UniProtKB/TrEMBL annotation:
Coiled coil feature spans: none
Keyword Transport: no
Pathway info: Cofactor biosynthesis; adenosylcobalamin biosynthesis; adenosylcobalamin from cob(II)yrinate a,c-diamide: step 2/7
GO molecular function ontology, one term from the record: corrinoid adenosyltransferase activity
NCBIfam families, alphabetized: PduO_Nterm (TIGR00636)
Domain Cobalamin adenosyltransferase-like, chain residue ranges per copy: 7-173
Lineage, broadest ranks: Bacteria, Pseudomonadati, Pseudomonadota, Alphaproteobacteria, Rhodobacterales
GO terms classed as biological process: cobalamin biosynthetic process
Protein name according to UniProt: Corrinoid adenosyltransferase
Matching InterPro entries: CblAdoTrfase-like, CblAdoTrfase-like_sf, PduO-typ
Secretion signal, residue range per the UniProt entry: none
The entry's keywords: ATP-binding, Cobalamin biosynthesis, Cytoplasm, Nucleotide-binding, Transferase
Length: 190
């Protein structure tokens, strides 16, 4: 159980922060940037939820929880030392990726194939889901870059990759099952 009775600590006033294992790093480190972008993704999902209901709203709530799991995973470096930790670090699991894939497949079954790229927008929910998609893509790029320098849980990378696809398909669902998608017209304004 997390207990937060004091919000500021002053420990980061010098520009560093503590990772999940207690190690202190610069606030501009790639790891902090990666899990910070995951947190930003979570905030955009919170905005999308203002316009969602039913199955999509429930799925977005699950995704928000997963994103906290993902942030916890990314803020804990040195996976090789997980067994030595006082308590087992929270790591993303393939089951979370599998759930996203199943949800993408189920949503996609109702959609006509795309014959053009689509522009972000349409309904308020679709527009917010496209914002979620682009922010999650940035988080993925940062996590992939981090993985070139340090160990990163493979399930975390897969989850981020599937997540942006989930947001894309959900945005099409939010646009009247794709019927209200705004199609890109190449060179339309030349």
């Amino acid at each position: 159980m997390v207990v937060l009775n004091k919000i500021y600590t002053r420990s980061g006033d010098g520009g560093d922060t503590a990772l999940g294992n207690g190690e202190r790093v610069a606030k501009h480190s790639l790891r902090v940037d990666a899990y910070g972008s995951v947190d930003e993704t979570n905030a955009t999902v919170g905005l999308a939820r203002l316009h969602a209901q039913g199955d999509v709203g429930d799925a977005l709530a699950r995704i928000q929880n997963d994103l906290f799991d993902l942030g916890a995973d990314l803020c804990r470096p040195d996976m090789a030392r997980d067994a030595e930790a006082e308590y087992a670090p929270l790591r993303m699991a393939d089951a979370q990726v599998d759930r996203l894939e199943a949800e993408i497949d189920a949503m996609n079954e109702t959609l006509a194939p795309l014959r053009s790229f689509i522009l972000p927008g349409g309904s308020a929910l679709a527009a917010h889901l496209h914002l979620c998609r682009t922010v999650s893509r940035r988080a993925e790029r940062l996590a992939v870059e981090l993985a070139t320098e340090e160990d990163v849980n493979a399930a975390a990378l897969k989850y981020l990759n599937r997540l942006s696809d989930w947001f894309f398909v959900a945005a099409r669902i939010a646009n009247d099952d794709g019927r209200s998608d705004i199609l890109w017209i190449p060179g339309a304004n030349r």
